[in-house]
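Lab meeting minutes (informal)
Scribe: AK
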Amino acid sequence: MKFSNGYWLAKDEYLINSPLEAFDASKVSGETENGTEALRVFAAYQSIDSRSQMLDVGMSTITVSTPAEDVIGVEIKHFDQDDHNPLFKLYPEKVQPTINVDDNTAMLKSGNLEFVASLHDRFHIDFNYNGSRITGSEYKAQASIADLSGQELGKVMHPNTVAGAQSLATPGSVKRADHFMREQLSLLPGTNVYGFGERFGNFVKNGQTINTVNMDGGTGSEQSYKSIPFYLAGKSGVAGKPGVYYGVFVNESQPTSFEVANEVVDRVSFSTRGESLEYYIIAGDSPKDVVGKYNKLTGGSVLPPEWTFGLWLSTSFTTDYSEETVMKFIDGMAERHIPLSVFHFDCFWMKGFEWCNFEWDKEQFPDPKGMLKRLHDKGLKVCVWINPYISQKSPLFKVGQEKGYFVKQGDGNVWQWDLWQPGLAYVDFTNPEAVDWYKGLLRNLVEMGVDCFKTDFGERIPMHDAVFANGNNAQGEHNYYTHRYNKAVFDLLKEMKGEDEAVVFARSATVGGQQFPIHWGGDNLSQFHSMADSLRGGLSFLSSGFTFWSHDIGGFEENASPAIYKRWTQFGLLSSHSRYHGNIQYRVPWLFDEEAVEVTRKFTQLKMDNMDYIYGQAREAVKQGIPLMRPMYMEFPEDANTATLDRQYMLGSDWLVAPVMTESGDVDYYLPEGKWEHILDGRVIEVPENGKWMAENYDFLSLPLWKRL
């Protein structure tokens, strides 16, 4: 949120108190999750020049710790209260920091990263890496903020209200104001900001306002299915000097607002509702180093089975389908020598209006167990669509209602609405019994022969008048819901299929979701600009600690033209994971034109022929905690020309892919310094030190696909 009126003033409705002087600091033991020592700093909201200034003043309690080498956590508290928000689960290491407090500073050091706070002076914080300042919190950047809008003086008590206002309040007339905590971290000149999950706007986030709240808004809006309160700040090196790279992870599950170099143009501001704010600075020598450390801190990535990297074919969404339709598509792919790995059944494998009842529609699929065996006999894996919402028409609704398995309203009734399914209810994954019930429903399908699940939705979770079984704040549970949902499904598959075979195909995600691969980009359009939107979203998501990502080949909405289908097929089969899926149109190539068949066959075979490279790179990416599909800046951080590139990427460390996003076949892209071989036409180019911009034209059987030699 924006609280300021220009650089110096606050907006009229906000009372902003900032730590002005840290008056005490000490080492504390036994309070951190990994059992190591921490530093605690007490900073008052006014300068302390005399004893009288120790009265009628608030303060922030700042606890500094380290969960891993080169990672420093900062927790800022105003009142020591439980906001009832789930913090994201972290996986700390046993790292003992160096802590020193003297007359002027309080310091904590982890590896080569150092936190330094001023004492008995204008309060500010510096974060130094390898001896140089990389960011910091300037004087008055931190803040404890009350929203006094609509309140009368004396009828509201904010913890930091000036003594005169407090004295006007009489017993019984006090009403607490909404409260926020804010931090602002400075940016060095020339620093680009990336990440925040799957964001479809400009790839470099400088100048944007970003709210980390999961929403079902498609791939062409400011909303996101996968909001991650993490950003990567990067500044390329010049004249042989190393660049500056660090990440900032805000450990708040409830919606958090980021003002990226806009409210204060040389800072990233972030704020959240409540009495506390927790964030981590993650430093490293390269973007990969930083992202890898963040990935490990939040649980690390999991390597999906090799079969998931092949081609997935879907029934599509609202199209008519039955076993006969499905087999016709599968046989059609085989007849045309197009390798197929997975067949996916979308929503209407169940009866309409009953999602989810987890029962096959017997009119269309009279012998589901036999059908699944017939698909397995053809060498295919089977995926089916699910979501975490239960329609009132589903036979399962009464069960969940009576046993208390759904999210409730404040009056004790089930929280319901008619969006998506009539009278739907939300499975409450904070209730262990509800989790077991939901997993049991899926267990029947796995026993029948289903190999994996597409875990759709998970974003439209109520944040108001909603009561969860664990008593948590509904705003805090909103983003965290997808983690509980995907974890329940993934855990069931691990239990039944084994750790090496478990996989979901998920749309929503939050921090730590890389433990439950794979994720795809959501509802895009069958248009060239939506290819670009999808890729920007994917590269932002992959800058945020995730390793694998996919998208609907051909676009989800609308009918795809033959040109869109063929160009997107190239892009899709040169992505981490590859799935044909649509809304109103089947996505089998022969329904477009004969060349589409040839394009699909060529690029599917190309991927299968190079599976040793792709799966080997996937294994290494999991090990390092970095993406398989990676932005150009991440692979070439020393080349400033790569900093803003968002229509090309590296697939692993050696393959450069520039999808063609025009019907004409015109494409412009950038080759960094080095020796490159075109994988499809055999050309070899020696690119000079400053890189080379390319402008070319490709037919539908080719695209810029280069291998670094």
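Next up, CB showed the second protein from the same session:
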Amino acid sequence: MKYISYHKLMLVAVMILPLAACDDYLDRTPDAEVTENDVFGTFEDFQGFMEPLYSLVIDYNSHALTTGMCIGGEIIGFQGWSSGDRAKRGDYLSWHGGGNGPAQQSNFWCTENNEIGNNDSGIWPDSWRGIRLSNLALERLDLMTDATQEERDLIEGQAYFFRAWFHWELGRYYGGMPYVDRFLQPADDLLLPRLSWHEMAEKIVADFDRAAALLPEDWNDTAVGSQFRGANAGRATKGAALGFKAKTLLYAGSPLMNRFSTGNVTFDNTYMERAAAAAWEVIQLADQGVYSLIPFAEYQTMFARNDGEMPWTAETIFQKVKSQVGDAQQNTRHGRLFTPARFGGNGICETVNQLYVDRFEMADGTRYQEAYDQDDSKRWENRDPRFRQNVLVDRDRAGIANGTIVKLYDGGQDKGHVGLLTPYIVRKFWPVGVNRIDQVWSQYRYVTPHLRLAEIYLIYAEAVTEAYGASGSAPGAGLTAVDAINLVRQRSNMPPVSANAAGYDSFRELVRNERFVELCFEGHWFSDIRRWNIAHLPEMKPYVDLVFDQDWTTFNRQVIAERVFDDPRHYWMPIPRSQTQIYAEFNQNPGW
């Protein structure tokens, strides 16, 4: 869907920045005047103003060169500027612009010359831009006089959604932030103090509630969206607003956020009750047919396609919709994260930690054991089907030609000479044929979903487990935590679990492991282990390689690195130091 007026957006670009005006700055003819009414008067023009908000959403695995959001220890990189290596060193400052050139960029990137939508922007600057644009939209809403009620609701709903969304993005990485709920002018009090996480969360939730009341379940069913049927993927919807409301409440109830707000490193069951109720609202939408878990045979279509179509399915609730198609996506994006050099990557290729691989159960639902490393029938076979759907192992075929069989044994063609640190390649975003050998990549597209239905079930399961127990359910809901987990597991033909969580220390541990497996490499691990306040524990730090010969004679584990993660320093990203020096109330995070 396109609503855009470029000359008007140029005016808006000036309007949103407080500039020192000069009366004789520019001599203009009357015909050259563009007023605010020209920008905001009709739905079409106003929606053109809203479009940059979608461009400011960060896709975690394709936004920046060489870096993604798998930064919690699940993968390890070879070169110093890769996200896997920075995470290993705890080098958060460089993620904010501590290096030079595009190789140093990241999802958090912040420089003095960021521009909307450019790849050298990131979560910190773009979230504040998005908040300002959202507030300006709400302030100018009354100027949209030539519009239906539906059109007014769509604009207002998107503005509330994105104001909440961008505060949420900041909060999950940086901690409690000021909640900017008006379009600030130079004369306003700009010395806004940081809020506790709970204070910020309440304001985020209120805005998501406002958005949910105004936005449609499906844009295709609106008078506006029906004109662009089939081109509405990625729009903010009621389900997205309710889903992120549930996610915000889940985080608010987690130990790290409770610690930041109250000093208590425990779960807050009141927030967990509210998270369960919000997740149940989205599940009810699914029960009505708005969303559905897609068949396992179509699993990869949520993340990558090689037919030119946007990866978007009935399971997708919210993600960034990108227009890029073709081999450049492999050569400059996926290739700089997850592709071995021989297949078109550039030698950085981030590979999977053996300890993360261990989290995938056996096909019968039992836990993987280190002793299975020596057993060809158990090491990589007869595992949870999601393992091989998401990870390539030695002797797998990565493409079509015979030359695309991966060689990940010690000294092998892929692992031995180009710096791959473990024998596991991320497959999730890499369709067959998208490589330098086959070159079937002219229609390649990949994305990282921000929210999909499987995660909603997992949010519900975790919240219910903490608030009501594994066999409990949210009030009025006909679904227990056990039921929700089993809905996700049965899609991949994994056996059901029960409340006794056989093989796990607790049902809580089982729920967490299910998140690790189902949502792997989508940017959740880093946030999860932090919000659970376990990221600093010794067992969360090792990176382990599995070393074996070409004939699979012997297999030996080697600890190749220990992740640097200090408490409390690494629980929050450092705020750019220049920002914390503006006024005392905007303080830096601990340890930075």
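CB comment: Confidence is low (pLDDT under 50) at residues 1-30, 98-103, 112-119.
No objections, moving on.
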